[in-house]
Amino acid sequence: MIDVNATQTPKRYANIIPMKELLRAQDQLNPFPVLEKLRKETPVRYDSDRECWDVFLYEDVHKILQDPASFSSSRGLDQKQSSMLMMDPPQHTQMRNLVSKAFTPKAVQDLAPKIDALTHGMVDAMLTRGEIDIVEELATPLPVIVIAEMLGVPAADRKVFKEWSDILVSGPKENTDEAFMEVVRAKEKASSELHHYFRQIIADRRRQPQDDLVTSLLQSEIDGEKLTEDKLLGFCLLLLVAGNETTTNLITNAVRVFTEYSDVQDELRRDPSKIPSAVEEVLRYYPPVVAIGRTATKDLEIRGQQIQRGQQVVSWIASANRDEHKFDDPNRFIIGRKPNAHLSFGFGIHFCLGAPLARLEAQIALGVLLEKTKQLTGNQLATLTPIQSPFVYGVKAFPVQIS
Asked: Higher-confidence residue: 93 or 46?
């Protein structure tokens, strides 16, 4: 963990520091023109303000994500304290093999009836009003409830569960030591509270096992050894953030697309079988995660730029997903785009373990929403506020008029 009481400012990881080109709210709401300019003019560039390399082309981002030997996910933490996102092989391989049992196709599909019932209840409640906030009334509670139930979190704790999640993905408002330290302290506090909370759940499950993921992991073994409490805590925090924020923003961003391009929602109502393809295009067009950080493990070169061992490298997913060298007409939303090899769930050994669950929740939520409404219209008078995070793409609220 970062020692926030240290007199020296901790190492400032570039993936939580805002890029100067994206400091304005309007650019955070629509970063794609900025990223396109950078991709074309400086496809690989060093940002002295953030002390990192930025990579914008699909080909380069793809290579980085599939090469953990050259680009490490480690943040310099003890492996026993870090989540899978910050592990390299062989620890990552062992941990992923263990927890992947909870995300097999059958395990995820078994959740479909529960997700469908939850969604119908939420959407039915919306229909009694003419305007709703899609973030507050559907996109946030649905994945929170699903993840919370998987982890055995009581319903009464869901609100604070979400608050902790929001803090863990937040970033500083500006690139200053003061702003950075403020975010670090907030993250440390939330992380400490979450560790304490999950330690209590783990202790409860040891005394009284239940039909939930924590109990399953407690009973599992890697090479004949039980999962340590530190690794189990790391996974709980990872599942909280990855399974919560990603799906919330995926659903919200999809509805945003529907309101910006009404022909999209009309086509999906006529042919709901296209919803899975539309979800994939939302992932490419408005990705929930815009950037992923790595650390170079050796001196290397990308497009003539010399990257030194230990330097941070930020791969811009949102830029790669709109690279004209990879995607035809990349700035147009195409429901049936094929192929659609977006990188929104990462690539390689760190490909998002919860991707099948996020896809299922989004497909069900959007299907029910479109089935039960005739039109979704964005509130033109509403001022959208971007989530204050350099690597997450979404808005804090999204008012929608329904008919």
From this structure: 46
